[in-house]
Model the fold of this input.
Amino acid sequence: MLYLVGLGAGGAQELSDSALHALRRAQRVFLTAPEHPSARALNLAGITFEPCPADAKRAVESLLNAPERIVALATPGHPLIGNSITPALLHAIAERNRPIRIVPSRSVLEPILETVPLAAPDGIQLLSARCLPHLRLEPTLPALWVDIETSDRLQALQAQLLRYYPPEFEAYLIHAPGDDALTEYRRIAIHKLHQMPCDAITYLLV
Done:
């Protein structure tokens, strides 16, 4: 059995009871982002884990060829959102007819909307900066950008946004949503984005 487990956005309160139960049942736990704040929740719960290979092909082979009967892949947020390994893993599981159980916690979307706060009655776009510049967005709807991670990627995102919005248009840069001790956010004009620090837990809401 393979558990695909979401750890929530970061704080221990974001980890669902069902996710915690699945991780405790697993005989081996792989974690996609050991540096993410959600890893602290595993440490606090006494759950041992090892880093998952970053390469999707290697990750899939490690997970599906593990000798343990119950294996878990734990990933920040919701396990089906913003995890580059998931598509390859689901494809391989379907091909090999292996059992899988998806065990969610909240994604980063909810705590980000709550932090700002922002209502999105007409919907919201969820976009990966990893896919730039090959993305189009609908400027009349809010957009949450994930996978920013580096200054170079933030600058590429800034260049893309300036094609759709005036330079003074303001967006929200959010760091560590879902972790009350670490969460920070600021409202900033798009033309100043390149001046901002960012890392693996930085998001942009436009």
